[in-house]
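step=encode ok
step=design start
structure_in=
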């Protein structure tokens, strides 16, 4: 493990129990590809704290429509295991099962203190063409479970 006096930890280790930043990222991305609903639920419960939250800046067209309705800022939120499970299941249904795509990591995950940053892409299995992607910033609690998940789609 490589830790500096500023608390920066490399991808080779962490101070928590779940292992490296890369391992956290691997588990996170695998969750979105998981076809089995029971395994997805278990993964949600293992990855996120009970009151964990996933925050997503929606696509531009959704933000524009919200602005037309008088909403200055639009952020989509899923809080708690039940809502997180629904969020992941819906994304799986739309993009993986229904869309024939898969999510995969792009590059190495990086951990600094209690935050893990990872980049992901959406591709068709067996192909390299990137159809979408984004950046994830995961803020971990003391047990290395996700307290807050900030998703920034669009590469």
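sequence_out=
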């Amino acid at each position: 493990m490589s830790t500096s006096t500023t608390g920066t930890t490399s991808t080779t280790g962490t101070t928590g129990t779940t292992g490296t930043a890369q391992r956290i990222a691997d588990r996170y991305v695998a969750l979105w590809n998981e076809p089995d609903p029971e395994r997805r639920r278990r993964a949600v419960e293992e990855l996120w704290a009970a009151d964990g939250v996933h925050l997503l800046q929606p696509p531009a067209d959704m933000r524009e429509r919200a602005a037309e309705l008088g909403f200055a800022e639009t952020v989509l939120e899923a809080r708690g295991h039940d809502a997180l499970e629904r969020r992941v299941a819906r994304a799986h249904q739309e993009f993986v099962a229904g869309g024939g795509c898969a999510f995969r990591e792009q590059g190495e995950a990086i951990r600094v203190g209690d935050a893990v940053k990872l980049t992901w892409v959406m591709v068709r299995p067996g192909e390299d063409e990137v159809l979408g992607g984004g950046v994830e910033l995961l803020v971990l609690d003391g047990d290395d479970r996700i307290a807050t998940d900030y998703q920034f789609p669009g590469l």
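step=design ok
step=annotate ok -> Residues 1-18 have pLDDT under 50 and may be disordered.
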